[in-house]
Specification:
alpha+beta; four-stranded mixed β-sheet; 2 helices; about 30% helix; DUF2188 domain-containing protein
């Protein structure tokens, strides 16, 4: 086994979205859907390379108590 990679979408301090791989920033996005798509593509590439993947994305629509 080649290891496990953790890919996450997180809110950036400037209001955008950051995609990280093992806590290292891999990309910045202003659109949550684009960030989630990129994270998903990264996860698929890692899986094809034989790695185990932990993928954490953010729902495109925030829960009502957060949106208010």
């Amino acid at each position: 086994m080649n290891g496990t990679v953790r890919i996450e979408v997180q809110r950036d301090i400037e209001g955008g979205w950051a995609v990280t791989r093992d806590q290292i920033i891999d990309g910045y996005f202003s659109d949550i859907a684009a960030a989630n798509d990129y994270a998903s593509a990264c996860a698929h590439r890692a899986q094809r390379a034989g790695m185990a993947v932990v993928l954490n994305t953010v729902p495109a629509d925030p829960p009502p108590h957060i949106a208010a």
